[in-house]
Amino acid sequence: MEMRVDFHTHIIPENFPDFAKKYQNDKWNILQPTCSCGANIMIAGKVFREVTDQVWSPEKRISDMEKENVDIQVLSPIPVTFSYWAPIEEALAMAQFQNDFIAETVARYPNKFIGGGTVPLQDVKTAIREMDRCIHELGLKGIEIGTNINGKNLDDESFIDFFEMCEKWNVPLFVHPWETLGRDRLSKHNLMYTVGMPSETALAAGSLIVGGVIEKFPSLKICFSHGGGSLPYILPRLDHGWNVWPHLQLTEHPPSFYAKKFYYDSIVNDPVNIKFLVEKFGSSQVMLGSDYPFLLRETPPGKIIDDTLSLTSDQKRAMLGENALRFLNVPVSEFVR
């Protein structure tokens, strides 16, 4: 039985709190309605992103899913709401508001949605407590994190305790780019989305590998958005650097060894790239993701996998649904009624 699970989708509550007013700080993003079916995400009085009711309405999502042959969406917060820059009490309030909303949405439509949460990683002890609540109280199945935390790469020693608990509790992590490197050079032409995000994702993955985090915690489950960004294509260069600078080596094996342990979503825009991901990492490590409901999303979800002629039917079935459920520790039987 083929089941389509869209691993990469984003959601925000329609009654999103006005923390800018509450905390007297215009760095907070707010949701400003433009009509009954649309709104702007605003930051400091400027439009950050235009959105439609697809981003908050589960009923609209389900309608789209039925039209586009998607059985399940995995819900994650929008990265701009990570709020790693904020005082920890305020950031925790934002995270909890979203986690509660996602858990409530899943509870209303348990056959349609799986929930992923967010944690305030600027304070690791608080992040671990909220992750505990997300997984063990709210029933969420994973945690979405950013590619850096206030400019710190993910191999920074301050995050070691967080990754240790993720491994101990078997919590899957979805790494999504935000606050991309070189932001001052990416403002024109929307290059932040098309060039900055893939580069930022590769930096995050590379730092986890060469920084020894994946070797230290070999059972960590991590999925990188957008097919890992530019990581798959620069792995030979990372390996070469590992070989020619032995005094910098922190791992037993070269980077490509550890990259095979990661998972990658399928938003790579070309069947040639899907074929490359499968050849590089195996079909078991790639899963359908569309980036619903944003403009750069794949429509319909899974088309690029369908169009990759080199894949077998078993590989396609795994990539379209089974891999995501396995990654999230969700038995297929939970959705077979």
UniProtKB/TrEMBL annotation:
Enzyme Commission identifier(s): 4.1.1.45
Keywords: Decarboxylase, Lyase, Metal-binding, Zinc
Catalytic EC class: lyase
InterPro entries, sorted: ACMSD (IPR032465), Amidohydro-rel (IPR006680), Metal_Hydrolase (IPR032466)
Domain of life: Bacteria
Keyword Lyase found: yes
Pathway: Secondary metabolite metabolism; quinolate metabolism
Start and end residues of each Amidohydrolase-related domain: 5-329
Family affiliation: Belongs to the metallo-dependent hydrolases superfamily. ACMSD family.
Assembly, per entry: Monomer.
Name assigned to this protein: 2-amino-3-carboxymuconate-6-semialdehyde decarboxylase
